Amino acid sequence: LIVEYGFAKRLLNTKRSLALFLMAEVDISILSMVPREYFHPKPKVNSSLIRLNRKKSRISHKDKQKYNYFVMKWVNKEYKKIF
């Protein structure tokens, strides 16, 4: 999957709720950087080629609901305090 480079870095940042949600379900890795010069018209940002490998869930459905609640309540709360 090709995404904006900054977004790819945010997917790996465990202080962000999106990363925590995804990491519970998939392994995320940045395979390579794709320079903006490779596109036409040239965008303002660089891109990254990322891989998302689905992994077997280790969390039960009930616990996953609790996990999602925790992430939404506490991780987002801390993020809003910073900014």
UniProtKB/TrEMBL annotation:
Pfam families: RrnaAD. Belongs to the class I-like SAM-binding methyltransferase superfamily. rRNA adenine N(6)-methyltransferase family. Keywords: Methyltransferase, RNA-binding, S-adenosyl-L-methionine, Transferase. This is Methyltransferase Erm. The keyword Secreted does not apply. Signal peptide: none annotated. S-adenosyl-L-methionine binds at residue 1. GO terms for molecular function: RNA binding; rRNA (adenine-N6,N6-)-dimethyltransferase activity.
